[in-house]
């Protein structure tokens, strides 16, 4: 499954069995400025934005499976159309792509965005909207924003000091506002889990688009993946590495998928949590061991649970954390009203 999100984080195309079977391709990815018919043998995937990104996912069952996965990955190629119409077999991607002068390659992107301030952020947005136009459905909102100089190619130079101050204030409050919106969305969750729906195709739901982009950038369409999210245990207590938790699945009750599933650990900044195992997720391809009755326990904790439980250990940071279950190619039971995973149980 290879989703292709556009500049607005909407999934404009998905390459995979659900849409194209297992033998389709090759594909032509084209932006809004490209026109014409796709060359013979290419399936056209059209995006409304010039900036797009590709998320290639390859399921692996562990190190013994790496050679097969690497072979498949190496056979996946991205070739400019100008070279495809010549002799694509002669094309080799550049091995040394220079980093633009002045680019910050050490600060996390989310921190760079927060540091832009109102003028910097909206100036960048105005520039990006030229080649990455908003959807026609956004016209009402764009009409309101234009009064503040926020429009494709517009300048903020004519804004008053008061208006610029308002943009700076709003930008500064943004991260906290997003955290509050996420908390509101998950305040009535069942057993600690919230199953966010309608991802990857946000329409004019700007709140959901902003929250998911900040906390779960690159979310797939529901048909391809579901992401139950938990920040608390069954009793509503925040997840924290100072305590140990267990995620228990009864026999035959693991997440219903046609693809694969995993439990992913995130720290308080929504980044992978460093740990001695270099294990950032655990799932049905991880070689976990079931209990004698066929049930499954995943140990979610900071300290090593010991050799008997290490195979089922998802390391947590020492402080606050949250977890995502990722269900790829979810089966119909996962879409039923009220379906949620079992709750995380604090054990100490």
Structure explained in plain terms:
With 348 residues, this protein is an alpha+beta fold. It folds into 3 domains: 2-90, no CATH class; 109-185, no CATH class; 193-346, Jelly Rolls (Sandwich). It is built from 8 helices and 14 strands. The chain has helices at 17-20, 66-74, 81-84, 109-114, 117-131, 139-145, 161-185, 206-215, and strands at residues 2-5, 11-15, 27-30, 43-46, 193-195, 225-226, 228-230, 245-249, 261-267, 281-283, 296-301, 313-315, 321-328, 344-346. Strands 5, 6, 7, 9, 10 and 13 form a 6-stranded antiparallel β-sheet that branches. The longest helix is centred in the middle third of the chain and has 25 residues, at 161-185. The chain is globular. The mean pLDDT is 91.
Label the overall shape: globular
CATH architecture of the largest domain: Sandwich
| Strand/helix succession | EEHEEHHHHHHEHEEEEEEEEE
The main β sheet shows up as: 6 strands, antiparallel
Described by its quaternary structure, the protein is: single chain
Helix content: 10-25%
- The share of residues in extended strands comes to 15-25%
CATH class call of the largest domain? Mainly Beta
Overall mean pLDDT stands at 91
Number of helices: 8
What low-confidence regions span 5 or more consecutive residues with pLDDT below 50? none
Secondary structural class: alpha+beta
Give Rg in angstroms. 23 Å
The CATH superfamily of the largest domain is known as Domain of unknown function DUF1214, C-terminal domain
Number of separate domains:
3
Span between termini: 39 Å
Reported by name, the CATH topology of the largest domain is: Jelly Rolls
Number of strands: 14
């Amino acid at each position: 499954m290879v989703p292709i999100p556009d500049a607005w984080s909407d999934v404009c195309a998905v390459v995979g069995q659900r849409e194209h079977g297992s033998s389709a391709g090759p594909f032509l990815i084209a932006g809004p400025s490209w026109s014409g018919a796709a060359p013979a043998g290419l399936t056209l995937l059209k995006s409304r934005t010039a900036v797009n990104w590709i998320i290639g996912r390859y399921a692996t069952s562990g190190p013994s499976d790496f050679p097969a996965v690497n072979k498949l990955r190496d056979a996946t190629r991205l070739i400019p159309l100008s070279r495809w119409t010549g002799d694509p077999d002669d094309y080799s991607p550049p091995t040394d792509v220079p980093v633009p002068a002045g680019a910050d390659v050490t600060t996390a992107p989310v921190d760079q965005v927060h540091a832009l301030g109102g003028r910097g952020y909206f100036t960048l947005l105005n520039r990006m909207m030229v080649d990455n136009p908003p959807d026609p459905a956004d016209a009402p909102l764009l009409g309101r924003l234009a009064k503040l100089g926020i429009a494709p190619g517009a300048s903020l130079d004519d804004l008053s000091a008061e208006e610029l101050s308002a943009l700076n204030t709003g930008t500064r409050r943004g991260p906290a506002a997003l955290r509050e919106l996420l908390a509101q969305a998950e305040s009535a969750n069942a057993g600690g889990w919230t199953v966010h729906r309608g991802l990857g195709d946000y329409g004019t739901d700007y709140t959901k688009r902003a929250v998911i982009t900040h906390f779960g950038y690159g979310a797939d369409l529901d048909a391809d993946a579901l992401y139950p999210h938990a920040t608390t245990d069954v009793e509503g207590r925040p997840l924290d590495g100072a305590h140990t938790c267990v995620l228990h699945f009864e026999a035959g009750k693991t997440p219903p998928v046609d693809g694969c599933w995993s439990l992913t650990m995130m720290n308080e900044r929504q980044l992978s949590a460093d740990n001695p195992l270099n294990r950032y997720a655990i799932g049905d391809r991880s070689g976990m061991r079931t209990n004698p009755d066929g049930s499954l326990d995943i140990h979610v904790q900071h300290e090593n649970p010991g050799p008997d439980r290490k195979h089922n250990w998802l390391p947590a940071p020492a402080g606050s954390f949250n977890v995502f279950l990722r269900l790829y190619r979810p089966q119909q039971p996962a879409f039923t009203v009220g379906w949620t995973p079992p709750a995380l149980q604090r054990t100490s």
